[in-house]
Design brief:
By secondary structure, the chain is α+β, with helices and mostly antiparallel strands. The chain is built from 9 helices and 13 strands.
Amino acid sequence: MYKERSEMISGIIKSHDLSGLIFWRPDELVLALGYMPLWGLSVLVYPADDEPVLFVPELEPEDLLPANIKIKTFPWGAKDCPDPWNVLYKEIKEVLLQKHLLNKPVSFIKSIGGTAPCRMSGEQPLLPADFTECLCSLSETGFKDATEDLLRLYQCKTPADIAGLKLTHRVAAVAVIVFYQQVNAGITESKLAALIEYAVQEMIGQEEISFARAWPMVLSGENTSNGGKYNRTTGKVIVSGDLVMLEMAVCVNGYWADITRTAISGVASDLQMEIFETVKNAQQIAIEMLRPGVAMKEVDGAARKYIEEAGYGAYFNHALGHQVGFRYHDPGAGLSANSNEVLQEGMVLTVEPGIYGVELNAGVRTEDNILITKNGYEILSDYPRNLKGKS
């Protein structure tokens, strides 16, 4: 178990006087154990006695299972077991019974939505309609809501999480290099995206990387003007003079990065260069403000003010950033005008100002992932961020 995370989880159990906590979302399992499931059907029961048990389907690959934790399997795909969920519920209840913990409530995040994919990300497994109801019935005293504290776990990255995130960002760096190398007139957005994704998956097997995926979305020319509304790759051919924007999620072993770079195919016009430099400077102003105790809305406000004073305020139409790491978009307050929270050590946030306009025939965004440290910040995605990809 991750020592720091174990202490946080135990603290929640004690403060709410629970029999235990239950985790099943892939991102929760990465958060609690550093374990990214293949099937997305694993359930972690973390009881009050601090001896967690991980329940996994029989078909889960053994080489993916975490060490130093008790693991129990339940049937999956067996012809003689038409209801594996009922078996799972009975086994979980038996564990709580053996530990004499049935007299206190259980807790978990009830919402079915909002999760990162499992390794078989083409299809998230379907949970029974009564899944949360059955989990509530595991204890004689039912369910107690600790959602606020459980969601807060996402906001603090432990040293083990930071190591995982740094590995993810090393893989993302390879993708960014390919992006800049291949931004040439004549290539399509779709081929450029495919080359980036190929480079990321090719990293599997290196540096203990067992899973690596990228979701690169490439917009070029007039398509970049919609970058503040949505990101999508089309079959458009990139031509000389096009701005080209890469919006990219990268997941490595369950840890996520969210990166955006904007490049130029050919030579930038004066307007394109002015927009790019405005975004770049606004981002730098925001990054230099990052440290524990700073109000999130003040960081958003400083970047927004710079863009407004440059005459492009109407073209910056989204918040400055969000939390990231266990998901493409982690729960928790972000850098926005509506946020009332302050930065804390251990948070990882994106800083992503942008300018987009149909009348400008242009869109520019630069996005980096920043770790809040004890005395300031560390840029996890510290690779080139100019139009030609040069340091």
